[in-house]
Design a protein that fits this description.
About 30% of the residues lie in helices and about 10% in strands. By secondary structure, it is of the alpha+beta class. The chain has a domain of about 210 residues. A hairpin with a 2-residue loop joins β2 and β3.
């Protein structure tokens, strides 16, 4: 359907008042677009193919109410155009506008004065004949029909729609007032092919053909700060600037928004929304898919099996990586009110029952954990998409049928946005503006993240309730989610400041900006090296990492020249909201605290659900060090179909007995995003498409296939999150082949599509070969040692459990980066003058 355009007079309301009423009587087409208005006496050929809902606007030579149409006698001519109001309509408008109503009678109604008439005409004109389905649906109001009749709508142009927002608000107040009079939360609209009206009398001749109830709820208008998609063609890049932008823009000069914060995800396969636009996916038959919670407890029960090799640090570093690369946009990111689909008692919210942004996880009658009589649902709100943001939709395409796409709020590169922020504003807040350091606070004589209030943001979640229990601020608003995450982000900030202090000492002539940017560059390089060369081979398998050119043997190769400006590094929706979530299986529900002696008798444990969004625990006693040692000592859970109850029954429970279910959320999120099915991705990744249940037997156990066949109607309905998680591990990886395929694709794009990748020789500010060799000495073990309070020993490979082949050694014996190679490595930033005129190491152009 082509995009609707406003009628000519909608852009110039005064023109309507000058129209000759006789031309209307003769049926002249005023608007120039028959799809936009239905006027009496129009030739039948000019009617839209389907009736649409309108409030009539024409006041010329016809006597009708603002809301209720009154047919005039044919041939009647009015001495003066007027609008007639029924008594309750008159009172309502008087209430809204606070203008006096007077005039001569017109039938059984009272006419308004000329000023009121013009105001009403303006109300009607702004939404061009108040076509509710055309105007209210475009970034202003959400329409919810309460019957099954198909309601068709088009979208309108923001250029004039935004211009009339204030008038629409007044009109909304009128509707609300009318609803209160009727003691109803909805408005009755009745119409036939040539008479349109609003009535509370269901026996009225106006409603002989169809009654439709509409619920009008305000739709949020994005603030200018977040007109993200409008800005996707926004800027000129600084071609000689040697550092990354804060928001990820201009990494690719030809496509400066690739990988940028506050832009859309991309996809490997098209979405499968049930309406092709935004409605959640359904089964192939059109029936509802099995409830996410039902799938969770049938297919993903608890069975705690410890991984024989890898430590809990492996799991936790995965969360650092995923938070660095993506964060799903939600209403608060746009200063919009959150929608609570279930109340605090787990009951379906009647207020939001028909809210399309609600997609609650429904609890069945036989749920083994949640009592149906006590808990009806687990709250789940749909992610914010470009389809809810007018500028995004307009920038996306001229095709109204383009499906919705979710937004990621952070940069999509491995660039430590979780400590530096994804905007210049956030980055500046987090800096001391002195010595290149990041802001911290001192608690118990130790350095911790700054307090959350400095961020001046409502998106940070924290459950501490006493002043001495500090919540932290960072570049990512999820920093307080769990103790291990907060711990690692604290250490990352400490590492930045450690390097900044050293660089400042060896280069006293460097300005704050130079120290900060050079430290940031070193930090990101270390992060990329540790993630790709130490962590990623564990997840996808060493051989796969080499075969798919995610890592290289660097014994005799210094630079890796593999940047490709044609590769889009934007995060895949299937990766962030599908495949990467498989690592939730690695989560342990109890966290080990290990002291320096590592005596088993001294080990203590924290229950994970006791400390969700309660980060103050890490600043108490020696908890930071003990938790860090625990991460490098405690095994993670095996990657299988089993999930710890701490995240499937007690997630974010706060002070409640029970909490949420992360596995249900993962499944529901895939449907929310319209992610294609498991079978679709099997085929995409080179596996045989399953025609029957037995075809899944190549990587899914017979027991799980039998469960799938009882829960789903057919193989084509199985969710990606479900099928991929049930696959057995393949190729030395911690995942099956389908998720492995998606992970490899994403991490290849993340590397090859990053112009600033630490190994490239072509960046404006590439490292020297000597510096690059030092970067490759970075290890997660040394990182823990350098940024703890008093950890003195660690095994060399901290993602791997201590053993005879990986013994615990002194921290001093672990390799470290020699930062003296950055001495006198002077950069003259634009607008600055350097105090040093010579270089001991040549700056690579």
């Amino acid at each position: 359907m082509p995009r609707a355009q406003p009628p000519p007079w909608a852009l110039n309301p005064s023109a309507f008042n000058t129209l000759d009423h006789t031309t209307v009587i003769k049926g002249t087409h005023l608007s120039g677009s028959p799809a936009h208005c239905i006027l009496r006496n129009y030739p039948r050929s000019l009617y839209p193919p389907k009736p649409r809902i309108f409030l009539t606007t024409l006041a010329q030579c016809q006597c009708f109410g603002f809301a209720t149409y009154k047919k005039p006698k044919l041939g009647t001519e009015c001495v003066e155009p007027m609008i007639c109001l029924e008594d309750d309509d008159k009172d309502a408008l008087s209430h809204v506008t606070e203008l006096p109503m007077d005039g001569t009678p017109c039938g059984n109604a009272s006419s308004n004065n000329i000023k009121m008439r013009r105001i009403i005409l303006q109300f009607l004109n702004i939404i061009w004949i108040i076509n509710i389905l055309l105007s209210f649906a475009d970034g202003i109001y959400q329409i919810t029909p309460t019957n099954s009749d198909e309601i068709e709508y088009e979208t309108s142009s923001n250029a004039w729609n935004q211009h009339y927002i204030n008038y629409i608000d007044v009109l909304r107040n009128y509707f609300n007032y009318r609803s209160n009079i009727l003691s109803s939360k909805s408005i009755n609209i009745g119409f036939d092919n040539d008479v349109v009206g609003h009535t509370d009398d269901k026996h009225s001749p106006l409603t002989t053909h169809l009654d439709i109830e509409l619920k009008l709820t305000p739709k949020k208008v994005i603030s200018s700060r977040f007109e993200l998609c409008k800005n996707e063609n926004f800027r000129q890049c600084k071609y000689k600037w040697p550092y990354r932008s804060y928001d990820g823009s201009c990494n690719n000069f030809e496509n400066p928004t690739w990988g940028m914060a506050e832009t859309r995800y991309t996809r490997l396969l098209p979405s499968i929304y049930s309406d092709g636009i935004w409605k959640p996916a359904v089964a192939s038959s059109g029936h509802e898919l099995p409830p996410a919670r039902l799938l969770s407890y049938h297919l993903f029960p608890e069975l705690r099996i410890k991984d024989p090799i890898w430590t809990l640090l492996t799991m936790q570093w995965g969360q650092i990586v995923t938070h660095d690369m993506s964060e799903l946009a939600k209403a608060p990111n746009f200063n919009l009110p959150s929608t609570s689909c279930c109340d605090g008692n787990g009951q379906l919210s009647k207020q939001n029952l028909n809210n399309p942004e609600c997609f609650p996880i429904v609890i069945g009658n036989n749920d083994p954990v949640y009592d149906r009589h006590i808990t009806q649902c687990l709250t789940f709100s749909r992610a914010t998409t470009d389809y809810q943001i007018s500028n995004c939709r307009l920038a996306a395409s001229n095709d109204n049928n383009q499906s919705a796409e979710q937004i990621t709020m952070v940069t999509q590169f491995l660039d430590l946005s979780n400590i530096y922020g994804s905007s210049e504003k956030a980055a500046n807040i987090l800096r001391t503006q002195s010595g290149g350091r990041l802001r911290t606070q001192i608690l118990n004589h130790r350095e911790f993240l700054p307090p959350v209030f400095i961020m001046n943001s409502t998106t940070f979640t924290c459950d501490e309730d006493r002043p001495e229990q500090v919540c932290y601020g960072a570049g990512d608003d999820r920093v307080n989610q769990n103790p291990q995450l907060t711990l690692l982000q604290t250490m990352l900030v400490r590492e930045h400041n450690r390097i900044a202090i050293i660089l400042g000492r060896i280069n006293p002539h460097w300005f704050d900006e130079t120290i900060y940017q050079e430290t940031r560059r070193i930090m990101i390089a270390q992060h990329q090296f540790i993630t790709y060369y130490e962590w990623l081979p564990i997840i996808i398998g060493v051989r796969n990492a080499f075969d798919y050119k995610l890592i290289y043997r660097t014994d005799d190769i210094n630079y890796i020249d593999d940047y490709n400006s044609n590769i889009n590094p934007t995060v895949l929706n299937e990766h962030s909201n599908g495949a990467f979530r498989v690592l939730h299986s690695l989560v342990a529900g109890y966290l080990k605290l290990v002291d320096e002696k590592r005596s088993p008798s001294s080990h203590k444990f924290l229950r994970l659900s006791d400390w969700f969004h309660r980060p103050s625990i890490i600043a108490k006693a020696d908890n930071l060090d003990d938790l860090a040692r625990g991460l490098a000592d405690q095994p993670e859970q095996t990657r299988d179909e089993f999930y710890d109850h701490e995240i499937t029954e007690y997630l974010f429970r706060g002070r409640n007995r029970l909490g949420g279910d992360l596995r249900s959320i993962d499944i529901q999120r895939g449907r929310d995003h319209g992610i294609a099915t498991y079978n679709d991705y099997r085929e995409f990744c080179g596996l045989r498409r399953a025609r029957n249940w037995a075809d899944f037997s190549d990587y899914i156990s017979p027991n799980n296939i039998e469960k799938l066949s009882r829960l789903y109607e057919q193989p084509d309905d199985v969710d990606l999150s479900v099928g991929g998680s049930l696959e057995m591990n393949a190729g030395g990886a911690l995942t099956g082949p389908t998720f492995l395929c998606i992970l490899i694709e994403q991490f290849y794009r993340t590397r090859v599509g990053d112009r600033f990748w630490f190994e490239t020789p072509n960046s404006v500010a590439a490292f020297t070969q000597e510096q690059l060799s030092e970067i490759r000495k970075a290890t997660i073990a040394r990182f823990l040692c350098d940024n703890s309070d008093d950890i003195r020993s660690m095994q060399r490979r901290a993602f791997e459990k201590p053993s005879t082949n990986n013994p615990i050694i002194k921290c001093a014996d672990l390799p470290s980066i020699n930062l003296s190679l950055w001495k006198d490595y002077t950069l003259e930033l634009p607008g600055q003058q350097t105090k040093q005129q010579h270089f001991s190491i040549l700056y690579k152009k």
